[in-house]
């Protein structure tokens, strides 16, 4: 079980062949999210010791094919930059080599000693990574379902949570090597959280190694004390639906709600079960009623952020079926509020949620990501705690959290009206 009372969390397990380390550095979504995305790629391109990404790869190959990455994800109001390395446990190395020290050395090398030329990042690498990020952002917006979900957040929220985790074109336009250097200097002296997983037999030794990643005395990473500054979402009030015309063949509809419930306040476990019954998969009411029974959409589902208290309902719909689909979605939500769902639906949804959590423990990264995200926010749930909390949810609690849902706004992608243009060449 993880130790939540120290600066370093441990998840001990002998079921995996690998051990893993995550160094999580949270930054605010109001900061330069796009810059941190680009910086994460630049840092992987070379260090003082390893001049190129190929040399980093060779070092990892020498560690029996270890894996290293810098993973970025939005968790509530924070962007998590996770320096992650997975490496073979000494039970399976050829000569019983212990790779913990080599893994820690690589993380420290990437965080503290990136390759600089004349005091800055190499200009051609910066340009390449900015261009790659531009292509990535464009690809996200080319996915019209994803675009629809992004836009409803932007239009319905007044705070920085509305910013997508991959950043914006506006921020990208202002990026350069000098700004990336400033972001790196800010990052390497930020608060950080360390999570270690695997076959940890000598916890004191591993803890001592990992503690070396913190370098507060020399202006480096500082020990994280837990993010207790949870900020409730700020929604736009009385906002009508927005229709955006595009050259598309399938309509898109996203509805935004405040749950008024999250993992910090209210009945989070019941919200998870409610969402599962309502729109959390192929067993849900939205899937079976709106899509299967009435054939009103190509896909429909609901999802929520447990750290922020925001829920979206997303659907791909024929243009002519917008109103019917919306009406039926609202009807199914009303059923959740009045208790018009069966005991079998409750049992099925609990079973699905618990199975997902149990299956997650088959992946070291997924387990670490789940536990460490909670730990950074000062929440000491284990996976077993969450399963137990879900099991105790009853009908009245599901109805209660459903009644707390508050509609905010909606965003529609509709078909562009292409009119014939007269030919006046006569």
UniProtKB/TrEMBL annotation:
Source organism superkingdom: Bacteria
SUPFAM superfamilies: LuxS/MPP-like metallohydrolase
Cross-referenced InterPro entries: Metalloenz_LuxS/M16, MPP/UQCRC_Complex, Peptidase_M16_C
Domain Peptidase M16 C-terminal span(s) in chain numbering: 235-353
Protein name: Zn-dependent peptidase
């Amino acid at each position: 079980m993880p130790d939540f009372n120290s600066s370093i969390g441990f998840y001990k397990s002998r079921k995996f062949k690998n051990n893993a380390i995550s160094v999580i550095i949270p930054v605010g979504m109001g900061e330069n999210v796009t810059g941190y995305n680009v910086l994460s790629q630049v840092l992987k391109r070379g260090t003082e010791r390893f001049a190129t990404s190929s040399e980093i790869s060779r070092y990892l190959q020498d560690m029996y094919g270890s894996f290293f990455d810098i993973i970025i994800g939005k968790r509530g109001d924070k962007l998590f930059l996770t320096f992650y390395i997975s490496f073979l446990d000494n039970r399976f190395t050829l000569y019983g080599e212990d790779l913990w020290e080599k893994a820690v050395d690589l993380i420290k090398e990437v965080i503290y000693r990136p390759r600089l030329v004349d005091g800055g990042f190499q200009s051609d690498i910066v340009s390449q990574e900015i261009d790659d990020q531009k292509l990535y952002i464009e690809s996200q917006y080319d996915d019209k379902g994803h675009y629809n979900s992004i836009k409803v957040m932007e239009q319905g929220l007044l705070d920085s949570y509305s910013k997508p985790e991959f950043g914006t074109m506006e921020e990208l336009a202002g990026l350069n090597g000098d700004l990336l250097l400033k972001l790196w200097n800010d990052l390497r002296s930020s608060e950080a959280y360390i999570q270690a997983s695997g076959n940890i037999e000598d916890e004191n030794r591993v803890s001592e190694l990992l503690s070396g990643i913190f370098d507060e005395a020399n202006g480096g990473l500082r020990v994280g004390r837990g993010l207790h500054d949870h900020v409730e979402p700020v929604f736009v009030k009385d906002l009508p639906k927005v229709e955006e015309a595009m050259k598309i063949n399938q309509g898109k509809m996203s509805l935004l709600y405040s749950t008024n419930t999250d993992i910090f306040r209210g009945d989070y476990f019941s919200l998870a079960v409610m969402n599962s019954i309502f729109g959390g998969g192929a067993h849900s009411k939205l899937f079976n009623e709106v899509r299967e029974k009435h054939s009103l959409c190509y896909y429909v589902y609901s999802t929520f952020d447990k750290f922020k208290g925001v829920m979206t309902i997303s659907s791909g719909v024929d243009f002519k079926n917008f109103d019917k689909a919306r009406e039926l979605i609202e009807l199914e939500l009303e059923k959740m509020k009045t208790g018009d769902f069966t005991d079998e639906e409750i049992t099925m949804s609990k079973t699905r949620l618990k199975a997902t959590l149990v299956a997650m423990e088959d992946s070291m990264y997924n387990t670490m990501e789940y536990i460490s995200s909670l730990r950074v926010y000062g929440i000491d749930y284990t996976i077993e705690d969450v399963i137990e909390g879900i099991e105790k949810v009853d009908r009245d609690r599901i109805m209660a959290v459903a009644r707390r849902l508050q509609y905010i706004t909606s965003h529609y992608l509709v078909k562009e009206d292409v009119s014939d243009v007269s030919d006046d060449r006569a």
